[in-house]
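Thread: Newbie trying to understand structure tokens

Hi all, I'm a second-year student working on a class project, and my supervisor (Dr. K.) asked me to get a predicted structure for one chain before our next meeting. I've only ever worked with sequences, so writing a 3D structure as a token string is new to me. If someone could post the tokens and maybe explain what I'm looking at, I'd be very grateful. Here's the chain:
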Amino acid sequence: MVIYFPLGMNLSSSQDVAHGHGIVSWAAVDHSRDDGKGDELIGFITARVVLATESEIVDLLKYDSAESELSLVYILTLGVVDSYRNLGIASSLIIEVIKYASSIPNCQAVYLHVISYNFPAIHLYKKMSFKCIRRLPGFYLIDGQYYDSYLFVYFVKGCQSPYSPLELVTAIMRYVRSSFQSISAKLWSNERKVGWMVQM
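---
Reply by user tm_fold:
Sure, no problem. This is what the structure looks like when written as tokens:
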């Protein structure tokens, strides 16, 4: 039996969390092990609450500065012991973070970075309905080599990016319609000028 539990939740105040000072973690252990190691960690996730205005995804949020401060949960790290991979442990840990983010009154989303060659992680986040919103060239520097990163976001509590497919199509249609109206008005105006000149 795998058990998931929070670690480090005793923060000095709720203000610490609201202002990005609190780091929270969840761990998984396998109590069904017969080798006496049922308390050893088999999975771990760490996250931090950050202010939306101080994040790199603030442009994706429907943010009204008259509202109270919005926050986000940033996943710092996620890991599962090799022998326990593909058993749903990472998914369960991510769900714990999503539930936590959903419990924060003004939290809009959970977001994270993943290195571009970590295909199992990319597949996991897509499967869990995270949206890949950006590729960040040269984000990671590992052993003197730069690697790209993908930025993934999961919107909580019905929040969504202003760039949802429907809103994007609507914006494009508005642009096409206004362009068509502008061209039509110019043609109509030119036709009137030409007609007036011909009558003289």
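A couple of things are worth pointing out once you decode it. The radius of gyration is 25 Å. The first strand starts at residue 2 and ends at 7. Feel free to ask follow-ups in this thread.
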